[in-house]
Design goal:
The chain is α/β, with parallel strands linked by helices. The protein is built from nine helices and eight strands. The chain binds pyridoxal-5'-phosphate.
């Protein structure tokens, strides 16, 4: 029992320490780029990690969490409601989303980052309208044109924005991308710069909402453990960091 308690405390301490370090690195990147750290939100990506890790990060100051799988997200939301902390946390859906799962997210998720087709946006419109909610979303862009990645082609994003503009229960706040996995974050700098330019172009054309009470628009969700500092230097307003906070994921269990 005593050992178990110690092990839990160790995990809690290491998550708090990791978070502190990630925040320092974000602040340093902001400083290099002449940006205000308040303009960069840290989304703690807790996928595959137990709810106790979410609570440890929450205790250390995290208020925004990202998940990839709908069932896991719903389970964690349920656990959070038992702890009475629902109001203090924003959940982000960041993984590829199947149309038949959309209904579960409406009303529980602050932002869906992974809208990668018009058909998915239509489904969100349909389900949000049933619940009389407006769902805020980002369009995912496959900026490096990787075969294996979801997302709109760079050249089809503007058309998609125009079409979604006509929906009354879906609001596009900005763009999201997952840059290629790399050992050298510098190789992703131009992808981040391109996404930033594209988001501002759409914003200037009024194809992205002009303001939002909770998020700075246009939202630019880019940067993960391997490349978040470069993403911040290139204008990210949200970074999605998992491994650097919670440690390596073990998909085997
Ligand atoms: C898993 C995941 C992350 C976090 O990745 P890390 O490399 O662990 O920081 C961010 N964004 C998306 C879309 C993910 O699937």
């Amino acid at each position: 029992m005593r050992d178990e308690r110690n092990a839990e405390a160790d995990v809690e301490n290491s998550i708090a320490e990791n978070l502190r370090h990630v925040r320092e690195r974000i602040n340093a990147a902001c400083e290099r780029a002449g940006r205000d750290p308040k303009d960069v939100s840290l989304i703690a990506v807790s996928k595959t990690k137990p709810f106790s890790d979410v609570m440890a990060a929450h205790k250390a100051g995290s208020t925004q969490f990202g998940e990839n799988y709908v069932q896991e997200l719903m389970d964690k939301i349920e656990e959070l409601s038992k702890s009475g902390e629902t109001e203090s946390v924003k959940w982000h859906m960041i993984g590829h989303l199947q149309k038949n799962k959309v209904k579960y997210l409406i009303g529980h998720t602050a932002l869906i980052h992974s809208v990668d087709s018009i058909a998915l946006a239509e489904q969100i419109e349909k389900e949000a309208s049933k619940k009389n909610e407006v769902m805020r979303v980002l369009l995912e862009v496959n900026i490096a044109k990787e075969e294996s990645k979801w997302g709109f082609d760079r050249d089809s994003v503007e058309e998609a924005c125009k079409e979604i503009m006509s929906f009354s229960h879906v609001k596009v706040l900005g763009l999201m991308t997952s840059a290629p996995y790399t050992e050298d974050p510098e190789t992703n700098r131009l992808f981040f710069r391109e996404l930033n330019a594209l988001a501002h172009e759409l914003y200037d054309k009024k194809l992205i909402v002009d303001s939002d009470p909770d998020f700075n628009v246009p939202v630019l969700s880019m940067g993960m453990t391997g490349d978040f500092e470069v993403a911040v230097e290139e204008g990210a307003t949200m970074v999605r960091v998992g491994t650097a906070i919670f440690g390596k994921r073990n998909y085997a269990n």
